[in-house]
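Escalated from tier 1: alpha-L-sorbopyranose holo job.
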Amino acid sequence: MAKQIRKLNVAMIGYGFMGRAHSNAFLQVGHFFDLPYELKLKAMCGRNRAAVEAMAAQWGWEEAQTDWQSVVKRKDIDVVDICAPNHPHAQIAIAAAEAGKIVLCEKPLAMNVAEARQMANAARSLPNLVWFNYRRVPAIALAKELVEQGRVGKPYHYRATYLQSWGADPELPGAWRFRKAEAGSGAMGDLLSHSLDLALVLNGAVIEVTSLMQTFTPNREVDDAVLALTRFANGSIGTFEATRFAIGCRNRNYFEIHGAEGAIRFDLEDLNRLEVFDRGDAVEIQGSHNVLVTGPGHPYTSHFWPPGHIIGYEHTFIATLADFLNTLAKNQQFHPSFDDAVGVQELLEAVETSARTGKWTKVSADDATVAAIQ
Ligand code: SOE
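Tier 2 regenerated the structure:
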């Protein structure tokens, strides 16, 4: 019997860096994954007509539009993908959900917890996704499998750093990412959100945090750097550092977990590799395995290139979208969902509160949210 292919018309709101990453994923996903959907790049939407027209033409979008309110209501749009700056995420997502669309949204989901919860409530009965793309790095998906198999054992330490340096560039124009009203926060929402999402997935719920936030640049409205200590529900302890001032580091999203049976270590600057230490190895050969996570048998890799042929940043968005479309076809819940991202937002809020008060702060998570983090 011939496979049923359903056409999905996509509208993208926003067209910057993430607009390119998502456009590429929409175009490529059907080449690497066998899916029951055909995606049509229908309308790209942004405020600056000339700029959105140029981007739409470059990436093969049928139309360039400037009025997102009318685009998200259109009958011929099935999917609304939000990659605008953070401050309109909630308004766009809620309008798209009210129009019954499939809603995809960049991280951080919202400007604060209240907004994130409203968005999750609005979209709960609809397919939704938050682009925490690093979950689909094959090496990170393998790390999750190893943790679930008990290869790390009882966890003691979770250590994460997300180090970038571009915030220290004095020539940098006043980008929206530095304006509180548009970004909400700086390194915290932009980078720590990724590290916390991975920590929740790999090591479970966080109970409490203590943190500090620092702005090095005079008159800058958002944090340049944030540090946090955490206690996890599983008894382990965590340290987190996210900064745009780590001179010498471009995009070092790094974590390691040390448990009773072993350890794992990942660094995005070498994203095809996972370091694995197994305490069960004979003592005379104990040491870190440097695993090139390109197959055979590794997550996602059979969809890309033959073993040993490495992949890049863009493949993480393609794999995220493929998993989403597969869960959509089976009518299943995709993760990370808006509910999962509410969990991250609750943690970010606890980090901010602790930095402000100088006190350990409990994470005030809805029970439903904690249960939903997957
Ligand atoms: C900028 O800091 C940025 O593009 C983030 O916004 C992304 O989420 C991260 O993946 C790479 O760096």
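The two ends are 35 Å apart (CA to CA).
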